[in-house]
Amino acid sequence: MSALRAVVVRPGRSSYGEIRRTQTWLRLFRAAGGEADDLGFLARGSLGPSVRDPWRLARSSIVPEAIVWNGPRLAERIRRLEPDVVVMQTARSYRPELCDGPWVPILDLVDRLSASYHQRAALASNGAKRAVLNRLAAAHGRFEESARERVENIVAAGWGDSAHLGATWVPNLVDPTERPRPVSGKPYDAVFFGSLGYAPNVEALRWLARGRPTDADLRVLVAGHAPTDEVRSLCRDRGWKLVEDYPSNEWLSRQATISLAPLRSTAGIQNKVLEAAALGLPQVVAPPALAGLADGFPAVVAETPEEFVARARSLVDNIASRTQLADDAWAYAHEHYTVDSWLPTLWQLVNPSEDVAPAWVTSGSNRPMQTGTDLGGDDMKRDGS
Question: Which domains does the chain carry?
């Protein structure tokens, strides 16, 4: 096979999660010596439903959000690019027309949007919003159940979601970084970072606050854009430092000794956990934060707010433990969540019929393709040490 040419179809929003997932696909294809472009269907030239969309929607052949864009129009744009592979990123990017071409189609569900919408409905501030989110959850659930009938290659980013969907697991990937060096004298003990208007992150901070961490016993930095009034109030009441629009994750790693992930409602893979590990930040997490990651991820796990705060305080105070945990997490992230480890999986997705793999596959690790049937389903265990 000549150099791969790929197109990633995505909504085209500026949300961090969407961009982060697109970066993983672009990294993979470029590491394979190929070319990759991403197309946003929310671009002006792709908007507008096609004639068959209401019928498809009624049969759960597309999800409701997909009705805003025109499948035939975008398929024509893709044909002009002559790709070998087309990745449809989330169910919102799926259209039958995008599977009907001289390329390998991959449907990347990313996570179970049905579960994500249910969680967001439970956290919704009013009944009307809750009803809309529950309807979207039901529509996505029907689509997910029949997705494999439409596309042979189904992928998901989260370990647990891959198991549930019977999909190939391709997690979000991190860029290699230098092994961290212990640094003392940081201004904060712990950091929580992410979008501070996102309901699950607001819920996480609310849950953390129940453990009553104050500036007197745990100096906490809360970093992220668009904080809600509730987040501002929590930070003010607990003495936490709130920083909006921080410059980079590397900056965060210079500010805090450990990272916190007190997440209660999660879907897919938690980027903040992976990124903290790649930066060498030891972490205290609630169990849902690990649902998208493979077994053995090095982190301190706490079940209750009080236990969470106590374990965070203990980790900050124990230099040897946190240094070892930071080193273990960094090594784990680099072994399992960098590009080279996943090139064999990419090859099996895009060209399963050829016996002889090209050099870009064999130069990576020999990781076998992992599907949902290999992942252990609901029997997954985590090391809670």
Answer: 5-173+338-379 (3.40.50), 188-336 (3.40.50.2000)
